[in-house]
Please model this.
Amino acid sequence: MANASTLLLTVALLATPIILFAIDRFPKWLQKFPFVVISLVVLLRIIAFWRIDLTDAQVVGYLPEDVSGLAALLYIFSGPDGLMLGLLFGFSIGLALRKQDLIESRWSAFLWVLILGWEINPEGFSSIAITPLSSYPSTLDWQSAAYPVIGFLLSTIVLPTMLEMGPSPSIRNIASFSILIAFIDLSNSPIAWMLLGLTAHRLSASKVDYTRGIASRRRWLGLLLIFSLSLGLLVYALILDSSTNESTIWASRYAIGWVLLCGIAGALTPLAGFDSRPRPEAWGFLSGLILAPALLPNLHHIEIFHFPIIMISIIMPWVGTLPEFRPKLSRNRRLLESLIFISIVPLSLFFSKYIPKALLVLLLILPLFISITIPVDEEE
Model:
């Protein structure tokens, strides 16, 4: 049953994206609206845990029966919904403290919808019949404090760094990747995978453009290679994951169809005017692949593609340059680079059974921070 918390969360879901998306048309003080609404929800959580409200689903689900008073307040961010509320609370604090431009504010609106719309279940904060506290409560750990901090860092460091990502390594870039890898290690959230993929892709693509420039001919071959090879690697990842369950391939047909649909839609974005990137079709296609799992996180078997999509988004900007007209790239070097880049995804998928995926992503990102040499412009 709806209560004050669920009503406030509904208001936050409906009103905040509109305010952030058109922040230039509203008074500046409205930028603090998300923080005010989520703060009220947190205040209601505090009151419910202080009173040990046995009609509150969050209290009944995660408060130990032998805890009361100030100690009970430590559990306000317990459970999956509580943790994401903490993430949203920290994110709203960052929005209130930092002045954003229009593009950054619109990305914040997009993340707000993903966090509140997909990651938080309103039933976790709803009213229920009077129920005694469970004798098997969740264990309180440091994650309850970590999620608000990560949410704050997402809005103040990660998002601005992603939008301003350039080819040169910086402390902000390193901090942004560290935060996202920690976020993935904590939650395995589709939002964390999406942000890491977008940030890594922007860094990789900007470095490719800086070091190799834009070819004058045969660029369509590079785009064709990116499209076809990405599809092949996604199918390979699906087959590898379904090796223990043959029904997985058929059951995941909607997931791979959705991923490819988002990729195709992204490749068409230059027709809508989003053509400021050196290779807008490839940039849109890979960005669409990255966004797809976060847009429909509950799609059956969509989680299979989180890790391989990040690998693909990092290597494909480099692979796309190999068939282009580049006289300074010898045939032997093209062949060697092709073998190296194409083998990265299968090897990463194999070692992911034994090594944490976050560590594998870190190992693949590290070479991008190597000092950049003077670029060679291939355009005639």
